[in-house]
Amino acid sequence: MSQTVDRALSILPLLAEGPADLGQVADRLGVHKSTALRLLRTLHEHGLVYRQSDQRYRLGARLIALAQEAMENLDIREIAHPHLVRLNEQCGHTVHLAVYEESEVLYIDKVESRYPVRMYSRIGKPVAITVAAVAKLLLADLSEAERRALADKLEYPMYTSRSTPNAPAFLRELEKVREQGWATDLGGHEESINCVAAPIRGGDGRVVAAMSVSAPNVVVTAEELLTLLPLVRRTADAISGEYSGRTPVKDGL
């Protein structure tokens, strides 16, 4: 039975490459055409594959609908949280998770620093959108037209001397973040707080969330915090893999 299920499931990635006829399916599975036909008929009955008029098979609408429903019901916070906790245990600093919703970037999860100096940020609270590292990542993933339209609508408060001063500077920063694939806030919101962030991507490659590590200067310098960037990016990649289904969940992480 497990071999039959394995063979049936192996048909789906083949058809994801494009329509295939019975012979192609049989060849890919290494089975007789009669065996391939039985598997295809079963998948067809469940709406997972569709037989075209040219006798080739393609992925069925039911499979696409199931995938869409699954994506809509995924909770990025639930998936990300164990990874954020592990990162916090490794570095000791505050870890945030943020998403872009209705023209705001919001924190949806936070793991507190082990150090006495704490961040004032709160879950559900909008971030300083023109300077926050997580905001830069989320907004950099928008189309150029969307970025320009948003940049023109924003205000640019000078929280510190390092804050983003205007729309042209903001757009340049977003383009830089888009190219390098990570972001920083080095004293742009508070002089004493630095932050490094990495994107979390869905199966289509789009940024669905962003995560960051933040720490005050009294605990770690900006240069020392930047050395954590590879670890932050690996954590974001692990979350992305699990969220998109590219990598299996490991027990206990």
UniProtKB/TrEMBL annotation:
One Pfam family matching this protein: HTH_IclR
PROSITE patterns, per database record: HTH_ICLR, ICLR_ED
Domain HTH iclR-type: start-end pairs: 2-61
Entry-linked SUPFAM superfamilies: GAF domain-like, Winged helix' DNA-binding domain
Alphabetical list of SMART domains matching this protein: HTH_ICLR (SM00346)
Domain of life: Bacteria
UniProt keyword annotations, A-Z: DNA-binding, Transcription, Transcription regulation
InterPro entries, per database record: GAF-like_dom_sf, HTH_MetabolicPath_Reg, Tscrpt_reg_IclR_C, Tscrpt_reg_IclR_N, WH-like_DNA-bd_sf, WH_DNA-bd_sf
Ranges where the IclR-ED domain occurs: 62-245
PANTHER family: HELIX-TURN-HELIX TRANSCRIPTIONAL REGULATOR, ICLR FAMILY, HTH-TYPE TRANSCRIPTIONAL REPRESSOR ALLR
Identification of the protein by name: IclR family transcriptional regulator
Origin species: Streptomyces coacervatus
